[in-house]
Amino acid sequence: MRAIATGLMAILVSSSLTLMAAERETETFSYELAKGGRISLENVNGNVKITGGSGSKVDITAEKRADNAEDLAKLKVKIKADTDAIYIETVHEKSESRWFGSNNSGEVSYTLTVPAWANLDTISTVNGEVDIAGVSGTVNAESVNGNLELVNLAGDTSLETTNGSIDASFDQLQGSQRVNVDTVNGRITLHLPGNSSCRVSAETLNGGIDAKDFDLNVEKGGFVGKDLNGIIGSGEARVDLDTVNGGIRIRKI
Predict the structure, then answer these.
(1) How confident is the model at residue 228 (pLDDT cuts 50, 70, 90)?
(2) How far is the C-alpha of 5 from the C-alpha of 251, rounded, in Å?
(3) Phi then psi for 184, rounded to 5 degrees?
(4) DSSP state letter for 93
(5) Model confidence over 176-213: pLDDT tens digits?
(6) Measuring CA to CA, which of 84, 113, 167, 248 is 20 to 30 A from 35?
(7) 205, 182 contact by CB (below 8 A)
(8) Helices (H), the chain
(9) Edge to edge, what strands does the sheet with 166-170 contain?
(10) How many beta carbons lie within 10 A of that of residue 248, not counting itself?
């Protein structure tokens, strides 16, 4: 027992030292964005959090982390910006000291505060989650191996994940709005206000559909899965939902 306890302690100490040895660095940026301006972000390994605020400024915080100083130095945040568009990209420079020139160990987590009216052209990450709140402009977001969590949406929206779930809440859904949500290996949950006006099309391959809050009828698919085609209110906006392995829920706020 004493030998086991000693071994466990050694593992804990080793893990603690590894965490302490990790290299970290934070970079901050700030830009002005004109009304109707666009923001794009492409990330690999790390979460993305975006919050809509007042004013016309875009504030960016990039928290970088790597196993060692060499890898941290090869982790770059590149930004192209003018008043009409801001493009943010994470670049993992290859390390010549590694076999086959593989990418380094680094990851970047982004926190952005943007004008509420900003248009999010493409917000994407691999191995990370995307959280967006309070953005009323167009929102296009996607993730591989990560969830999407969005609240206070009010514009055209396109969401996509592979190996992750999507939870999206709308402050309004009517008029000419278009909403497209697709997942592979994940569920979709949509929260809509009671005064929504939209035509809904939903399809699952392996999973159920629950839209009883709006009295929408669900049918069995042609061979497998479930289908839903229905109208909420007068059916002005358009909502298309599709998942392969996961259920779909449409809830009334």
Answers:
(1) very high
(2) 50
(3) -125, 125
(4) P
(5) 999 999 999 999 999 999 999 999 999 999 999 999 99
(6) 167
(7) no
(8) 2-21, 69-73
(9) 23-32, 57-66, 107-115, 48-53, 130-133, 148-153, 166-170, 188-192, 248-252, 209-210
(10) 26
